[in-house]
Amino acid sequence: MSFPDPSAPASRAFVSLIGAGPGDPGLITVRGVEALSRADVVLFDYLANPELLRHCPDAETIYVGKKGFSEYISQEQINALIVAKAREGGGRRVARLKGGDVFVFGRGGEEAEACVAAGVPFEVVPGVTSAIAAPAYAGIPVTHRESARSFAVLTGNTKEGGAHYERLSGVDTLVLLMGVRNLDGIAADLIASGRSPDTPAATVQWGTTPQQRVATGTLATIARAVREAGLEAPAVTVVGEVARLRDTLRWFDAGSGFGGPLAGRSVAVTRTRDGASALSEVLRARGANVLEVPLIRFAEVPDDSPVEDALHDFGGWLLLTSNQAVKSLFSFLERRGLDARALARMKIAAVGPSTARSLAERGLRADFVPSTPGAVHLGAELPARPGDVALHLTSQVAEDDLARELEARGLRYERAELYRTEPARPGEHALNRLRAADVVTLASGSAARHLAALAGIDLTVAAMGPQTADAARRAGFTRVTVAETATLEALADAAAWAVAGRGEGLGEREG
Ligand code: SAH
Known about the structure:
Layout: E1 14-19, H1 30-38, E2 41-44, E3 60-63, H2 75-87, E4 93-98, H3 108-118, E5 122-125, H4 130-137, E6 151-155, E7 173-177, H5 183-192, E8 200-205, E9 213-218, H6 222-229, E10 235-239, H7 246-249, E11 266-269, H8 276-285, E12 289-292, E13 296-300, H9 305-311, E14 317-320, H10 323-335, E15 347-350, H11 353-361, H12 375-381, E16 389-395, H13 401-408, E17 412-423, H14 428-436, E18 439-442, H15 445-455, E19 460-463, H16 466-474, E20 479-482, H17 488-499, H18 503-510
Parallel strand pairs: 1-4, 1-5, 2-3, 2-4, 6-7, 11-12, 11-18, 14-15, 14-16, 16-17, 18-19, 19-20
Antiparallel strand pairs: 7-10, 8-9, 8-10, 13-17
Helix pairs in contact: 2-3, 8-17, 10-11, 12-13, 15-16
S-adenosyl-L-homocysteine binds at residues 22-23, 47, 99-101, 104-106, 129-131, 134, 177-178, 204-209, 233-236.
């Protein structure tokens, strides 16, 4: 064993052993997210939700899961890789992201020992273990004042030695990990060790995720119930009186009504705008499992001299119709060594409160925001007179509504390309999860068209407004629900109607 040498030149080498939580990407700890976002390299598991990698967009990511890996990577190789990556190039910050908790059957102890042996400093960030979380999402508390005062977590993996069932006779609740395959034998052993065959039992597969499935029975019947339901790993089995409580407490199950209107449903959010996480929050508050799939990404224009020419000596209305426009405008100014004072002679209109907020964050107050967000309202309500000039700084795919409205009022509309909107290319894994989502939210016509091209199948969609809904129908989607107003709350409501199967009528009414 060697200790980190305090007199050695400072190295960045550091390993964070992080519990990723049981699957729901919201169940990682704050400390875990911090460590992840500082990492140079991330080694992640089969059971660590890959969505968590969005906290470390610039890190090198290495999949070391054992499942689906053609070449089996051994624990020893993982230990060696952690140390090697930490030592690389004068020292790097390694995040080792492990499903559930680091030290609950995760072999995290061995990884920590490898760090100690190599003299690499490390930390442990505990996680929410599936042993407690998967039952909780199935409506099963592992302890309960009335019926269970103790619980034990055991492994059903016989390679790991199995459990000493006879020693567990005084424990009220048993939580079995890695035990689906051997469930018959384990149940028989538990009965032989004195547990009643009538003890309630439940098996939870992919707990806390939209794929969560549960089978229930008794110690005598659970193995058959699991087989009949076709449940496989990863799953935990709870044995004990508490399993009965699921009948009353099953809050997360789709349609239970308790976890919110979107409980147990997966909603894919397809926007990339700054608003994406705001919408995700609203959806999560309604119980949804949110999958963020960027369909578009923003890029710089190859040549920004048209923007420079347009802004030069400009004294009319400057129209900004997205957060991205505000962001790109300020990077443009910065590139030119300028700041907000360059806009001093113009009046600025924002398409809605969110864009106005982006301006405010940069010290600019929008001179005008329409009463209802949207290009059409902006065009109709802009306090300008015929002959006034309005300059729209936007992307190459901007729709023509704004131009039409303004020109109809006798205003002069000019446009310059400030940034580019390009299709993003989600990976196959993300695409499959997108296809499996219960509903997909769409905030723009271009997102609708791109989604149709990528997914290649009809999906249930919730659209931000009638224009987006029309674009979605034209793109081939037949199950389209429209938000009643252009707000995130209304879009989340539309998503809930859509999964409740009440979307169609609404779609027709709007369309
Ligand atoms: N460290 C992990 C456990 C690793 S052992 C933790 O604390 O959760 C792997 C086993 O964990 C799986 O075989 C399964 O029994 C259980 N498991 C992990 N994630 C799970 C999930 N989302 N749902 C059900 N079981 C899960």
